[in-house]
């Protein structure tokens, strides 16, 4: 009965071990159970022995399973309880091995030098054999090893107890100690013929086996629970990933096996029945992206690093899907070698499409803005160009008349020519400015005086300001550092701010149309403020910088958004500030509080 | 030969002002140049004979505004407008408000000089008219109250007899008054007296022929 129970347990745990070679505890337990079965067999043999020699032989062979039990029990304690001292374990094994050797060398066995006779002992209603003879003093080595084993287990159990795992310490450590002690005492008593009983160690060992088995079974149950909750957690994760539009995938290095969630498969370009593999995955990538992805993937694998790629997966309809794949290599906890790569995939086609559309839109916007700006400024520029031309013509005609006189006024004519040259240069400058507005040239950031830019812009806006009856105030500090910028672009920004201010004051009576331009140097930045006494700002002041925000019927609403992008390209800031309802320093009517647009640029030091 | 009078030049662009000054001086005109309406108004004497060459687009007080102010103050300075933009509505408005001419920059010298000459001629004419009117005012002021009454009735076209009846005096007395009025007003005919009365904007009594 003992033997069959042990054999069953042994078979189960041997099976577990065969499935998971790392489960050493199961192997040790299995061997221990087998040995207990063998022990029971030997005991049965002894009980049925007919002659003293047969009894002695049985007893001699009995020590083989006992040796196995010792070794496996010590091993089990080490592996399962993760406690016990290795040197202690080795010495127990050594003692037991010596005892086993002596068992086969000295006398009839370890216990008896010679069995003189057998006697009949009543046992559980039957009559079984017991031995009488001269007992072997070397038996003490065996007893000593048993004692050591007790101390070793007790010590290990104490360590487990201290570690806080009290249940395991008591159940496993305590039972091993108790039953090993019981076995040893019983063996000593039986062999020493203090009590008359057959030699029955196996039931006690069976108890130890039961304790060990209980431990392992708990483990198995826990594993089962764990795998249940793992499955649940995987389901939850897949659900969450699906909901978020993520695909998940995993690649195991050891078996070179690729697994992916349903969405992951789809995103990686696999059809439903297609077997998953890394080469197939690469094959599904757009040829233009494949090489780069492969390289990155290899690098991540070799360096245990992360991998992230954005690539295209061609679709049967000729379009493609944009995927961003992100993954990380995880090492094996035991070996530290690369073990598995976990990754997610996200379909970013929509985002990519939007980005491309936006880029196209931006190009169009810039183009449109250039045209608009040109339209808005062409009047001013025409005026700008007209002025020097008019001066040149009048001067030239005056010169003609002066030279026609007798005597001709040569001195005055010379002065006239000097003026003509300088006016011509001014006209040339206007043309250059116009050209640079049209040109898609790279902007050059050069040190510039903000006051010059302000004055330039005011000059260009001159006729507009007069036409609208706007009074211009300037508060420009002279000694102020320069800024790095593109002159034409900054001019354009200021011009736009000025014209916007004009627009904002269109509804004001002419007497309260005040435009103020001021500069300030604060903390390494130069600030130019354009204030008006106009209609103020919408409640969301930022909205005026959005493309297509306009208050005009024919306005495109691109001016300020372009201004801001120009300023941003100059590492500066552009923002709007509404004046308080009480009106600002210029004493504008409370009904038209006005607004200030601040342009801030880093100073060149 | 340039016409008489001073050309007042007004342009906020110094280069333009200088060029125009040269051109007009080369033609022998007396030129006074200003870069702002304010500076011009400060030095301008309403009785000065001359014309104004005025840039429309100027800061603070622009050309149109200056024209309005001059008109309001009763100055009869002919104005030639210069503008950077060929703005027709503005030109029409300026001419309606009495501008002599409206020229677009760049302006041809011949056009400008012609306009300036015309403006100065008109200024001279206006000057004469003003002088004449002033004289008439002065003469009219020398009339007695009775003489003014008689003059009003005569220029209304009433016969001596009718006027005498109206005023309740004798026909002979009327004749004496009438001769004195003619003499004091420096006119030789009734037609001249009527013209003088018109110039003086005298209130002519309503025709009371109907009884």
SSE inventory with pairings:
The complex is a heterodimer of chains A (605) and B (211).
Chain A (H helix, E strand, L loop, with lengths): L1 H18 L4 H24 L4 H29 L5 H20 L6 E12 L2 E10 L3 H25 L2 H26 L10 H43 L1 E7 L4 E4 L1 H7 L9 H6 L3 H17 L2 E9 L5 E12 L6 E10 L1 H56 L5 H29 L7 E3 L1 H18 L3 E5 L6 E4 L1 H18 L9 E9 L2 E8 L26 H11 L3 E6 L16 E10 L1
Parallel strand pairs in A: 9-11
Antiparallel strand pairs in A: 1-2, 3-4, 3-7, 5-6, 6-7, 8-10, 10-14, 11-12, 12-14, 13-14
Chain B lengths: L5 E5 L3 H13 L3 E5 L2 H7 L6 E6 L7 H10 L6 E5 L4 H9 L4 E4 L4 H33 L3 H11 L4 H8 L3 H15 L4 H10 L12
Parallel strand pairs in B: 1-2, 1-3, 3-4, 4-5
Helix pairs in contact in B: 6-8, 6-9, 7-8
Describe the structure.
The complex is a heterodimer of chains A (about 600) and B (about 210). In chain A, helix 2 runs antiparallel to helix 3 and helix 6 (about 165-190) packs antiparallel against helix 7. In chain A, strands 8, 9, 10, 11, 12, 13 and 14 form a 7-stranded mixed beta sheet that branches. Chain A has helices at about 1-20, 25-45, 50-80, 85-105, 140-165, 165-190, 200-245, 260-270, 280-285, 285-305, 350-405, 410-440, 450-465, 485-505, 560-570; strands spanning about 110-125, 125-135, 245-250, 255-260, 305-315, 320-330, 340-345, 445-450, 470-475, 480-485, 515-520, 525-530, 575-580, 595-605. The relative contact order of chain A is 0.05. Chain A has about 600 residues and is of the alpha+beta class. The longest helix of chain A has about 55 residues, at about 350-405. In chain A, strand 6 and strand 7 form a beta hairpin. Chain A has 15 helices and 14 strands. Chain B is an alpha/beta fold and about 210 residues long. In chain B, about 55% of the residues lie in helices and about 10% in strands. Chain B has 9 helices and 5 strands. In chain B, strands 2-1-3-4-5 form a 5-stranded parallel beta sheet, with helices on both faces. In chain B, strand 3 (about 50-55), helix 3 and strand 4 (about 80-85) form a beta-alpha-beta unit. The radius of gyration of chain B is 23 Å and the shape is elongated. Chain B starts with 5 loop residues before the first strand and ends in a 12-residue tail after the last helix. The model of chain B has no long low-confidence stretch (mean pLDDT about 85). The interface of A and B includes residues 390, 399, 402, 423 and 467 of A.
